[in-house]
Each structure stands twice: as structure tokens, then as C-alpha cells.
């Protein structure tokens, strides 16, 4: 039992009171050896050194590329290719965009997706559901093997098919080289038209993971704007925040720096590209979705901000590449000298925050 504030909390129930982090409540963590240090930007390491008491610098990257939309097998192969590219670049952690495997539901806003009992919309949804993946399926098994082989911790957005085989979740999966999937965060609340396609998630994936001397966590798209979701991660000591996006400079240009400044943490925003040529030829609403002649649906917008809120890498538009940087955890420690939102600047006597991290399954079977 951990005593938090004026109440007692039982870790066995997996409910996290985030006004104080108790030992054993942050989920499964892994401490991994770091690769040899790379170059550290001068603004992050004024002394010009690397390593020391804060550990060696970490190289992080967003894989800004396009999925083979609607094709889980081909997209899996592309993910494996980009994880290897990240490894070749000395990357310790790589992130992909929201629902990169097997694609963001781009058609809904372009084809009047709210039509009731529309046969074309039903056909589009059936296609999308079939392209979704299971957490224990062959696609993720292959990716887990690649992560283990390369040693690159990976955050990957997937379309997760429910056990009922009728619902899709926007899930951000954390994959550890030694332990496989260590978190699967289903987006708490799909945004606007996404609610026509995705189910609502739960707090089960609001977890952080140790990677060397850094502690990393992540959220999907607009839930990055939810203060309580961010607070749940700050309270677990997050040093690096991964924000997964469909892919747009307009989505990442404000919130990336805001979270970095608020949380006094590094922020890696990972966005994807999506162009007409990336869409499966047999998608039922392909022609209707492309009718406006858009040259690009999503332009990336991947970016990296430091814990002082300054850009390390401004949002990148339209380029297919690794958006990478070397980061030094001492910068996080320095910035928390005057502000720690879930520590010395939190008033536990005024505010109480509870996070239910149970997986909200639709049924409990007793056999």
C-alpha cells in the first residue's frame, strides 16, 4: 500500500493518484544500455561535454514517411525498413505517426462520412476494419523482432482491431527491444469525425518507460491538448514526450513547444505523409476521396522541442526523412529548477487527480 496525501492507495487496483508517484505504480519499465554518444547541440550542453552524471546523450527521431495506406503487410515492411534506417543513424528511439499502421481515416471528412446506412461508407469501414491489426498479430510480431534486433525503442501508431472484431482503436504502441510491447495506449477520445470510425480508449496506456537515464511517454494527436492526460505523464517523471500525429505542420507548430515548456521535457512530434499514390487502389471510396484533386492529404510536420520551449528542429513539411536530434537529459533537470508541474509547483492540498489505468474490457469471463 502507498499512502498518498490523506488517502491510501492500493497498487493492485492499478489506479494512479498522480499528486505523488509511488514506487511500483508507473507500469513496467526497462533500463537499457545506451549507444555511444553522438553530437550534442550546444544549446543543450553549454559545457560542450557529453555523458557524466546525466548519462550519455540520446538520439531521437521521427520517421516522417508514408504508409502503404490500407495494406498492413506492405506498411509493416516499410516500418521495418525505417527502423533499420534509424538504427543505421544511431537512433535510440524512433516514433511513427498516429495510426501509421494501417493508416489514418482520411476519407471520412472528404466523403460525407456521417451518412446513415450509406452502403459506400459501410464498405469503406469494412475495408478499414480488415486492414487493422491485432496486438498479438503477425504484423506486430515482425516489428517486435526488428526492434529487438536493432535495439531501437519504437513508438508506433496502429489501428488496433478489437477482440470483438468490429471496432478500431487509435493505439500508440510502445515497443521495447528487450520486452516487446510495454504499453498500448488507446486514444482517450477520438477527435470530431474520427468518432465515426474509432472507439474511445481508456487509461491503461498512460505509462512511462525508462530508456537509459530518460523516462519516455506518449499520447495521440489532439489528446495532447488534454491537461489531465499530460499531467498523468508528468507525474511519472517523463523526460521525453512523444506526440503522434496524422501529419500536419498546423497540428504540431503550437502544441509541441507548449508541452515542452509546460512539462519541462523534450517533445518529439511524429507526423506522417499521405498522398493520393499512397492509397490502396481497391479502397471503396478512393475515387470520391480524391475528387478534389488534393496533391497531399498530410505533409508531416514532425518536430522536436527542448525543455525550455525552444525549437531544436522546427516542423518539417513535405520531406520524407528521419527528423532527428541528440538530446541531453541535463537540460530537463536545469529547466525544472523553477517549474515542475507535477512536483514542487503542484498543490496536492488543493487538487486531487486520479487516473484509472484498468483496461476497460467489455466482459469478464469466469470459467
Can you walk me through this structure?
The longest helix has 17 residues, at 72-88. The chain starts with a strand and ends in an 11-residue tail after the last strand. The protein is an alpha+beta fold. It has one domain: Carbon-nitrogen hydrolase (Nitrilase/N-carbamoyl-D-aminoacid amidohydrolase), CATH 3.60.110. It contains eight helices and 17 strands. α1 (72-88) runs parallel beside α3 (138-150). The model is unreliable at 1-49 (pLDDT under 50). Strands 9, 10, 11, 12, 13, 14 and 15 form a seven-stranded mixed β-sheet that branches.
Distance between the termini: 30 Å
The level-1 CATH class: Alpha Beta
The CATH architecture can be given as: 4-Layer Sandwich
Strand content: 15-25%
Number of strands: 17
Largest sheet: 7 strands, mixed
What is the gyration radius calculated from CA atoms? 20 Å
| Overall tally of structural domains | 1
The backbone outline, from C-alpha atoms, is globular
Q: Mean pLDDT, rounded to whole units?
A: 88
Amino acid at each position: 500500500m502507498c499512502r498518498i496525501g490523506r488517502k491510501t492507495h492500493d497498487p493492485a487496483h492499478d489506479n494512479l493518484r498522480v499528486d505523488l508517484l509511488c514506487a511500483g505504480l508507473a507500469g513496467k519499465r526497462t533500463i537499457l544500455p545506451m549507444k555511444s554518444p553522438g553530437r550534442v547541440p550546444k544549446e543543450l550542453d553549454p559545457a560542450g561535454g557529453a555523458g557524466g552524471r546525466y548519462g550519455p546523450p540520446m538520439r531521437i527521431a521521427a520517421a516522417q514517411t508514408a504508409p502503404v495506406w490500407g495494406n498492413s503487410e506492405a506498411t509493416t515492411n516499410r516500418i521495418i525498413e525505417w527502423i533499420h534506417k534509424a538504427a543505421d543513424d544511431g537512433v535510440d528511439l524512433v516514433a511513427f505517426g498516429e495510426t501509421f499502421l494501417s493508416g489514418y481515416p482520411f476519407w471520412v471528412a472528404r466523403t460525407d462520412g456521417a451518412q446513415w446506412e450509406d452502403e459506400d461508407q459501410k464498405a469503406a469501414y469494412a475495408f478499414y476494419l480488415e486492414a487493422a491489426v491485432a496486438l498479438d498479430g503477425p504484423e506486430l510480431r515482425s516489428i517486435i523482432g526488428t526492434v529487438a534486433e536493432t535495439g531501437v525503442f519504437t513508438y508506433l501508431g496502429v489501428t488496433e482491431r478489437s477482440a470483438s472484431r468490429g471496432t478500431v482503436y487509435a493505439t500508440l504502441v510502445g515497443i521495447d527491444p528487450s520486452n516487446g510491447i510495454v504499453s498500448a495506449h488507446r486514444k482517450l477520445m477520438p477527435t470530431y469525425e474520427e468518432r465515426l470510425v474509432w472507439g474511445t480508449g481508456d487509461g491503461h496506456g498512460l505509462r512511462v518507460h525508462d530508456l537509459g537515464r530518460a523516462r519516455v511517454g506518449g499520447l495521440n494527436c489532439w489528446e495532447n491538448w488534454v491537461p489531465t492526460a499530460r499531467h498523468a505523464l508528468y507525474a511519472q517523471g517523463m523526460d521525453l514526450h512523444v506526440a503522434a500525429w496524422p501529419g500536419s505542420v498546423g497540428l504540431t507548430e503550437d502544441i509541441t513547444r507548449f508541452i515542452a515548456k509546460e512539462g519541462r521535457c523534450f517533445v518529439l512530434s511524429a507526423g506522417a505523409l499521405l498522398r493520393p499514390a499512397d492509397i490502396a487502389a481497391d479502397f471503396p471510396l478512393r475515387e470520391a476521396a480524391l475528387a478534389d484533386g488534393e496533391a497531399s492529404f498530410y505533409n508531416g510536420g514532425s518536430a522536436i522541442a527542448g525543455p525550455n520551449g525552444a525549437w531544436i528542429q522546427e516542423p518539417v513539411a513535405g520531406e520524407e526523412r528521419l527528423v532527428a536530434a541528440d538530446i541531453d537529459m541535463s537540460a530537463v533537470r536545469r529547466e525544472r529548477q523553477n517549474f515542475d508541474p507535477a512536483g514542487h509547483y503542484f498543490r496536492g492540498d488543493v487538487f486531487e487527480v486520479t487516473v484509472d489505468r484498468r483496461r476497460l474490457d467489455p466482459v469478464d469471463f469466469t470459467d
